[in-house]
Amino acid sequence: MKERIYTIPINDAFDQDTECPLCICERKLENDALEYTLGPSMMEPDSRIETNEKGFCHEHFTKLFNFGQNKLPLALMIDTHLMEQVEELEKIYNKQKGRIMRESKKNVLESVLDTVSGKKKASGKIVDVFVEKLDSLEQTCAVCDRFRANMEKLLDNTLYLYDKEPEFKKKFLKSKGFCLKHLKALLKKAGEQFSQPKQAELLLNLIPLELEALKRVQVDVHHFTKMFDYRNKDADWKNSRDAVPRSIEKICGPCELQK
Fold first, then answer.
1. DSSP labels for 68-90?
2. What's the pLDDT score for residue 46?
3. How big, in percent rounded to 5, are the helix, strand and coil portions of the chain?
4. Measured between alpha carbons, how far is residue 202 from residues 28, 145, 163, 168 in Å?
5. What is the mean pLDDT of residues 224-248?
6. 79: which of 147, 187, 213, 229 is 20 to 30 A away, CA to CA?
7. Which one, of 212, 217, 215, 151, lies nearest residue 184 by Cα?
8. Rounded to whole angstroms, how far apart are CA atoms 142 and 13?
9. Using CA of residue 181, residue 187, residue 176, residue 168, what is the dihedral sign?
10. In contact, 162 and 169? CB cutoff 8 Å
11. What is the pLDDT of residues 134-155, one digit of tens each?
12. What global pTM score does this model have?
């Protein structure tokens, strides 16, 4: 199989003894996105416009903070991000401020009449607008967007290799399967890319492989639980010592577990 720049990380991941090769790929892509965000993107106007607008999700704010000792790049992004968000929130407030002040001075009877007439209260309107804005901000993240876009391309390339490269297909079929998150991603992507016969062939290979892997992990977890029975104090742990974190990642995908 001829190596290309986009196939190298996929092949490297499938060469490893892991519960999900695509989790390895995802971790690398996410790490690359974090490194890029705190490095080259700082000098790119388009990237700064994106981080000012979107900010980062809770998880990636945490990872960016913990990524390195130098907090200046993150501080610069937070500075301009907050500046832009404060300006937008201030515009929302100022647009309704006059109505809110008038509403605050209404007596009980006037308030009741407004309610009966179905008139929208300014305070209720501004709450709706603020919540909509904050919901939007909470659901956007520049790091998520970058690494998820790259993950989509990696899934495309994985299925391309499975379909076109016999050597890679052997690796695929000898793997330990995938986490449920990436199993779903593969199935969804195959539905978009493959013809019906190719989808059927993939299912006949992938689903039995995955079921066998899930049963194996479940057996390991079950054995782990049995080892806490005093009657098994001298028994062999077999392959169960790391069964709990392996099972969690098999179910959820990449996790930041303290092993």
1. -S--HHHHHHHHHHHHHHHHHHH
2. 94
3. 75, 0, 25
4. 26, 28, 9, 14
5. 96
6. 147
7. 151
8. 25
9. negative
10. yes
11. 999 999 999 999 999 999 999 9
12. 0.86
